[in-house]
Amino acid sequence: MATTLDKVEVVTVGVGWTGGIIGAELAKKGAQVVGLERGKARSTDDFQHIHDEYRYAIRYELMQDLSRETITFRNDRDTRALPMRQLGSFLLGEGLGGAGVHWNGQTWRFLPYDLEIKSITEKKYGKNKLGDEYSIQDWGITYDELEPYFYKFEQTAGISGEDNEFSAPRSNPYPNPPMKETPITERFKKAAKNLDLSPFHMPSGNMSQTYENPDGQTIAQCQYCGFCERFGCEYGAKSSPNVTVIPTAQKTGNFELRTHANVTEVMYDGNKATGVKYVDLQTGEEFIQPADIVVLTSYVMNNVRLLLNSKVGRPYDPETRSGVIGKNYCYQILPGATAFFEEEKFNTYMGAGSLGATVDNYNGDNFDHSDVNFIHGGSVSITQTGQRPINNNTVPNDTPNWGKQFKSESIKYYHRNLSVGAQGASMPHRNNYLSLDPDYKDIFGYPLLRLTYDFTEQDKNLHAYLSEKCAAIAKEMGASKVEPREISDHYSIVPYQTTHNTGGVIMGGDPETSAVNNYSQMWDVDNLFVVGASAFAHNGGYNPTGTVGALAYRAAEGIAKFREQKGQLVKVQSSSEHV
């Protein structure tokens, strides 16, 4: 029997970047906020012995325990889905700060084209550019409306970077200068310029200098140790919710954090959300937390699963294409090329998560798509994130997997290989979606989330195009051998790719085709907000975090407006007012 607690004004489900932003912004305005986090508490002090590649990068210390909850996967809806028993293609995080603890820090703004992709594509290339199996749609907000929220997030996170002609336009410079130039980034930039491209330093959540953000939180200067992705930062030099928005929320006195609180259900009376049900993972006790406003700020897949298990919203049906919850799941493709050198040696073992250089010439609609069989594109980069020894042993494709030649090639190319890679955009397809699994349940008896996903012709065509562009840059860098990447016939959930999953509770201007408005407020349930990359109507050619942060600040403003209406269930509408 669940114990019903005293009602609170706002409850958030998950305390990472989105939950931290919502908690901080509302608590600063005097709202009483409870943040529920199913993982344990953690801070910079917990990462003093973090340079353990086996523990964190191989055994996934900071990630979700799949023996308690996982997802099931299949390539198509005629196949039975099976549980993901080991983390592979993407890494589901857990614990205070969420993925913001163990991310690399690459922080981008989605392009104006992304937010109005359907309108711009149809205007320039006609309605049949992709075909009706793809469900691209506008986001219900323009870049000009969202731009101030991008900057708000960048100020909070202390993003280091520089402007460039092909990225989204900026009203303000980055809060911090770009990261260090290295021989590797310098070589990439020189090659790109020789090919008439426009290289620039990658925007970074690793601090180029010690920085104090507008809330008074200090982030230390990066030490370029090479242990960012899958690791917490022991210096407090990587922007994370734990060193920015969470302490800001806590110092107001209006924010209560509860860890080990696993939310299993949104309480819903058919009209509004009345609170959430959660299990205390340490005691096994079950609680109901009533609230005036419920905000789902968990990871993409958990946001979708909670709504489906709680029977909130209309589940997506790929046959009829009706419904919205689970619709437009997108991932990414990773085209690229590996460059092998004969004489030059590179120190790829020092670095930072966002130390790199990029060209945006092939991203979004920055080039003419009239004569290609795809839309969008991707950012092309070289990164020096720190190649750790266990997980890295790059040799040419024709090298045997064992024996004398394998050993000699491993030694030869240990310091003589570089990778030029792209993050390719992912367009939504009617058969790529999220739903509840009819057969498998978690340890609490709730159905697992089922992922139905495969590469599309759009993916394959874009992958070939971008891999060719990456190979051209790699060759211009002076490589003796260049191997472009190839895409497999079908998506596999086994090898790691990215944790850039998006969609399922998408944003838009029409309640028939979207789940939330541009304040992340559910069309069907006025006092329920769903914040995060689950709102993306498609996935772009960048890391999603910068856009997630902007949408979170936009949502915080919307929740504040809704709160000011003193409980009247009136929809929060689009507005040109900015933070």
From TrEMBL:
Q: Which Pfam families match?
A: GMC_oxred_C, GMC_oxred_N
> What range(s) does the Glucose-methanol-choline oxidoreductase C-terminal domain occupy?
428-552
- The domain of life is Bacteria
- InterPro entries (UniProt xref): FAD/NAD-bd_sf, GMC_OxRdtase_N, GMC_OxRtase_C
Alphabetically sorted, this entry's keywords are: FAD, Flavoprotein, Oxidoreductase
Give residue ranges for domain Glucose-methanol-choline oxidoreductase N-terminal: 212-330
- Please state which protein family the record places this protein in: Belongs to the GMC oxidoreductase family.
Which protein, by its recorded name, is this? GMC family oxidoreductase
Supply the source organism for this entry. Halobacillus amylolyticus
